Amino acid sequence: MNQFPYVFFLGIGGIGMSALARWFRANGHQVSGYDKTETPLTRALTAEGIAIHYADAVENIPAEIRENRSQTLVILTPAIPADSLEWAWLRAEGYDIRKRSQVLGVLTQGRYTIAVAGTHGKTTTSSMVAHLLHHAGLDAGAFLGGISVNLGSNLLLPATPEAPIVVEADEYDRSFLTLFPDVAIVTSTDADHLDIYGNQAALIDSFRQFVAQIKPGGTLLLNHTADTSVAAAVPPGTRVIRYGLSPEQGPELYAANITAAGHRFHFDLHRPESTVPGLELAVPGFHNVENMLAAAAVAQLQGVGEELLRAGVAAYRGVKRRFEFVVTAPENVYLDDYAHHPREIEAFLRSVRALYPNKRLRVIFQPHLFTRTRDFAAGFSKSLSIADEVFLLDIYPAREKPLPGITAEMLLAEITAPTKALVTKEQVLAAVQTDTSFDVLATVGAGDIDTLVPQLKLMLTERWK
Fold first, then answer.
1. What is the DSSP letter of 71?
2. CA dist., res. 285 & res. 288, Å (int)
C-alpha cells in the first residue's frame, strides 16, 4: 500500500473504517474522508490530524485527492448508499476504489493472522485476544470493531512486521473471505444478515468457505453452538478445538466452577492437556466467560503462560458499549450494551438477571435495521420479555430504506414484560427523570441510542449519589 501516499475514506466514521484510517495515518499516509454524521469518533480522528467533511459533494473532496488520482487509494464501506455523489465521481474518474475488507486482506497478507468471526461475540473476543497478547508483553497488532477500554482505541499498532495481527472477521457482505488466517475463532453461526444471504444455510456456507481458508497447519476454535458442518470444511491438518461453558455441552475447552460475585465472574479453564484454575473476569456475563475461553486458548497458542494469562484476564476491562457499567451505586446500576440480535439480547439480560436477581429491570431498546426486525421479530419479543419494563424506540435504519409494515411497534404484542411502551428519546429522558420505580436500567442497541447515554448518566448520577 506504500504506492498510495494519499488515502481517502468514504464512510470514515465507521468503527472498522476508522481503525484503518488510523493505521494509514500512523504509517505516514495523508488521510482524509467523508461521513454523513459527526460523532465523537470522527471528532477524535479530526483531533489526530485527519480531515473529515460531512456533506456529500465532489467539491468537498480535498484538493490533493482530486489532483492526484494515480497516487490515491479510496476505501469504501458497504454502508455508503448507491447514490453517493462522491462515490460516483471517484468511479467515473477511475480511482483505485477498494472495500475495507479487501484492504484488510492486503494488509494481513503474508503475516501471522488471528481472525475472529461470528454473528455475535467477535468484537469482544478479538479485543480479548489483543489485550491478552499485549498485556503479556508480546508484540501484536489488532484491527477491532469496537473501542477497547484497555487499549483506548480500536487499533493496536505492531512494532515489527513479524508480529501477529488480530482481525475482526466480518461476515456481512462476505467480507471475511478476503482473510487467510493462521488461527480462526468462530463464535456463532446464528442466522443474521438475511438481507445479504437470504437464509441461514447460505450464511453457514460462507463460514465454511472462511474456515477453508485457514493456512496449512492452522487452528480453528469453534463454539459448541456453531453449525457442526463448519468444522468439516477446514483444510487437512487443521486442529479443531470446540469450546463452551460446560463439559455437558461436549466441548474439549470449557469453563468450570463458574460463580458471579459483584461485577465479576470466576471460573476455571479446562483443556485436555491443562487446567488454569481461579480466573477472574471483571467484565460480567456468561457469554463473556465463553468468549474469554477462546481468547485465552489463542493466547496459550502464542506462548502466554498460566500466570501471565491469569493476570491478563483479571486486567481485561472490555469494549465500549459491551456490558458497560455507566453508573453504579449501592442499590442501583445503569448499563449500556450494543446487543442487536435476539441471542445477544438474551445473553446480556440473563447475565444482568444473574447479577441482580431481585432488582426491577428497565430496558430501553432500539431495533437496528428494518430487515433484521422483520426477520427476528419473535426472537426480539421473547428476549426482551426477560425485563420487567421494556421501552422501544423507533427502528434505526442505518443503510436501509423503510419497509412497509415493519416498525418497532410490531414487537410490542408478543413482549410479555409487565410494562411495555413505544417511546421517543425525549419520552425516555422524561420517564427516567420522573419515575424511580426501577433499580437497574439498560440501554440496548446498535443504532444511535448511545446519544442518550451522556444525559442518562448525568440524571442517574445525580439521583443515585
1. G
2. 5
